[in-house]
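Question (not urgent): is this output format expected?
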Amino acid sequence: MAQKNVVAPRLPNPTPEYDFGMMNQLLSVLRLYFNQLDNAGPIAASSQFNGADVVAGLSFPPNAGATTPSLPTQANLANLRVGDIYYDTSASNVLKVKT
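Got this back:
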């Protein structure tokens, strides 16, 4: 899953003739941009159908020593946007989506 908040870089202006340095700079900028697009980011989510059931999956980067990812809880509900995911700690840490 690619990042959605990546801004396209400003590409260097071309030179009238082939210039190795300019071409190297262009390729470096493009390489960095494509690496940012390919980076899954800190969280990846997916939903799939398994027959009649919907199976949702979240993956987080390894967090040394943490047992659960640091998502907001229902205590933060007033500050969340519609569609944000949070832990409902009153319901045994069930993941919910603010509607």
